[in-house]
Design goal:
With 280 residues, the chain is α/β, with parallel strands linked by helices. It has twelve helices and seven strands. The mean pLDDT is 97.
Length: 280
């Protein structure tokens, strides 16, 4: 289970790369936002790809930045980041993804209802790349994505850490990778006036963002409860990660990725034992 957080997701990528390199297998993965865009590389067996393309294209105006936001309405360039890059420039291994038995699920948010929309990706077509884009489309700096009969934005708006969802899908022993440290408590966003101005066509999104801190903190409480009962294992950073959601600073990206690798190495034995059914 992979939380989002924009470039904080490089922490998750570091952990997953260590797991891939050491042959750790999962029956299923659910990713939210950056957890979806970065986590799909686990099923395609492409260790190192997340850091590589973020480093390579960090100065590419079509990838991410103010120019993309002004010219297209998306901070992260829709066509370049989700279609040109994975099919031409740093090719996503669709065949390996398709043949790996791990289930891969993502979470999006319906802009008209504010409800979480869950979607399983079995293959990668143009439409499935759009589902991934939808899961990571942050409000205010992204246009809603039309796919599957929905208009969607970032899954973290409605279900940031979907442990209950994955349990309902039959996954009862889960590794939860968070991008915030233990003890973190989310506060009500100060950007509600901005949401009301920019997202006025989508009142359900405004309301969901106004209550997101309540949802998020309740999910953390549930995760703590499940971990205390031995039903999940949580991996998180020791402190607030030294990177913003949209940073393209190469030193910070490398640092956060390396922090993830360190956490992966430190937790490798615990994860193996947990997946084998041992009590920790």
């Amino acid at each position: 289970m992979l939380e989002g957080g924009g470039m904080r997701g490089l922490f998750t990528a570091g952990i997953l790369d260590v797991f891939m390199e050491n042959g750790v297998k999962f029956d299923g993965i659910v990713g939210v936002s950056a957890g979806a865009t970065f986590g799909c590389n686990y099923k395609s067996h492409q260790a190192g790809r997340v850091l590589r393309y973020n480093m390579r294209f960090r100065k590419e105006p079509r990838y991410m930045g103010l120019r993309s936001l002004i010219t297209t309405g998306d901070l992260v360039g829709a066509e370049f980041a989700y279609h040109i890059l994975p099919t031409e420039l740093d090719v996503f291994d669709v065949e390996t993804y398709r043949n790996d038995p791990t289930e891969f699920h993502i979470v999006c948010t319906d802009v008209h209802t504010g409800d979480a929309i869950y979607h399983r990706i079995n293959d990668f077509t143009h439409e499935e790349f759009e589902w991934i884009r939808a899961s990571a489309s942050m409000p205010i700096v992204s246009r809603p994505v039309s796919v599957g009969g929905y208009e969607l934005l970032d899954g973290g708006i409605s279900d940031s850490i979907p442990l209950r969802y994955f349990e309902s899908e039959g996954f009862m022993r889960n590794i939860v990778i968070l991008t915030q440290p233990k003890g973190f408590t989310k506060k009500r966003t100060k950007l509600i006036p901005v949401f009301k101005a920019v997202m006025r066509k989508y009142p359900a999104i405004i309301e969901a963002m106004n209550r997101r801190h309540i949802m998020y903190n309740r999910e953390l409480e549930y995760i703590d409860q499940q971990q205390s009962e031995g039903k999940c294992l949580v991996i998180c950073p020791d402190d607030i990660l030294p990177i913003s959601r949209t940073s393209q600073n190469p030193r910070k990206m490398q640092t956060v990725y390396d922090m993830g690798r360190k956490a992966g190495e430190e937790n490798l034995l615990r994860v193996r034992r947990f997946l084998e059914g041992e009590s920790l």
